[in-house]
Amino acid sequence: MLVLNETDILGAVTMNDMIAAVERAYAIYEDRAFEMPLRSHLQIQQNSALFMPCGTKKAAGAKIVTVFPENKIRPATQGIVVLIDEKNGSIKALLDGTVLTGLRTGALGGAASKYLAPDEAGTVGLAGTGYQGLYQLLAVCAVRDIRDIYLYNRSAAKIPSFIRNLTTHLAGKQIQMHAVENARELVRHSDIIITATSSATPVLPDEEDLYQGKLIIGIGSYLPHMQEFPDGLLKNSEQIFVDSLDAVKESGDLLVPLEKGWLKEEQIIPFSKVAAQKVKPKLTGTKPLVFKSTGMALFDLAAAETVFEKAVQLRLGINLKM
Fold first, then answer.
1. Residues 9-30: what's their mean pLDDT?
2. Confidence at residue 307, expressed as pLDDT on a 0 to 100 scale
3. Which of 164, 175, 97, 168 is nearest to 141 (CA)?
4. Which letter does DSSP use for residue 22 in this model?
5. What b/e readout covers 231-267, taking b as 16+ CB neighbours within 10 angstroms?
6. Separation between Cα atoms, residue 271 and residue 281, nearest integer Å
7. Strands, DSSP E only, in the chain?
8. Best exposed site among 40, 64, 196, 198 by fewest CB in 10 Å?
9. Could you give the percent of the chain with pLDDT greater than 70?
């Protein structure tokens, strides 16, 4: 069994490798060439544990992930990923699921920016400067020529350390960092807006006209009572792209507008159809485009397989005999 920690994983793959991995996962999803039971949620007081198995024709595995939003020292989202040898059923790899989740979820935002953002998009705004926000910005900068990054966090004291960390990761790129005082300023300056919070209430301004021609990426709300997007954005959206149709059952960002009649089911489109070039996004310049992610085990499996293959080539990790 190969054990891969955070250092091994970051040394094995680039963000572009991860974006390619999630694009392969989208192709598998579109072809329905997988088996993936709906993930199980375990409530731990005000926190969550999620159990996410998946199998394809060539791979099998599972992720256990915990979400403890009030964590101050450790990341809010942590986990572990197990890869199973599809030939003999043995455990072939154990991977740090915290960094793997960060990379693959960042890659989902990167793929959305690659296919959905306006061609001239050069500014990105992030609401929520936590662990996941870092990987979202790294992914966007990997696929788009970003000039300016705007940052907003309800706890403004967290932004300076986030900027220092982000600057280290983006060494060599000429990108200006800006801390803004409110979410309205963030949206006004940004072509691409990302929400990466654990908030149960909207974190962006409830102004319909503020989002015209912009791409909004939401990756934070993963339960029915959570809603990062404001009502005005949801009412004014012609298309909402989802990383999987399970998101419709899980996130308040989709359940609320469907229940209230602001959106019809046909307006919610699997992003796999965009990646497969079966659906062309409507880039009108007068309406926002929205991408909503709640994640799925298929992405973790594709990402873990990519990391495992690269790590074996580079002789990274520790081999343990069971």
1. 98
2. 98
3. 175
4. H
5. ebbbebbebbbbbbeebbebbbbbbbbbeeebbeeee
6. 10
7. 2-4, 34-35, 40-44, 47-56, 60-67, 77-84, 91-96, 123-127, 148-152, 176-179, 192-195, 215-218, 240-242, 268-270, 289-292, 318-319
8. 40
9. 100
Concatenated DSSP letters for 291-309? Answer: EE----HHHHHHHHHHHHH
Please tell me the least confidently modeled range out of 24-28, 260-264, 279-283: 279-283
Cβ proximity of 18 and 103 under 8 Å: yes
Q: Domains in the chain, please, with CATH?
A: 2-101+297-319 (3.30.1780.10), 112-292 (3.40.50.720)
90: helix, strand or coil: coil
d(CA 219, CA 241): 12
User: What 3-state DSSP class applies to 18?
Assistant: helix
CA distance 121 to 281: 15
Render pLDDT for 127-154 as a digit per residue (tens, 0 to 9).
999 889 999 999 999 999 999 999 999 8
How would DSSP label each residue in 55-85? EESS-EEEEEEEE-TT-SSS-SEEEEEEEE-
Nearest Cα neighbor of 145 from 167, 124, 122 is: 122
Within 8 A by CB and 6+ apart from 54, the residues are 34, 35, 36, 60, 61, 62, 296, 297, 298, 300, 301
- Six-digit token pair at 297? 């085990």
Closest by CA to 95, choosing from 305, 297, 321, 294, is: 305
Range from 32-41, 56-65, 185-194, 220-229 carrying the lowest mean pLDDT: 220-229
Please give the average per-residue pLDDT across 119-133, as a whole number: 94
- pLDDT, tens digit, for every residue of 267-278? 999 999 999 999
Residue 139 near residue 50, CB atoms below 8 Å? no
3-state secondary structure of 236: coil
| pLDDT above 90 coverage of the chain, percent | 75
pTM: 0.93
Residue 285: predicted pLDDT: 76
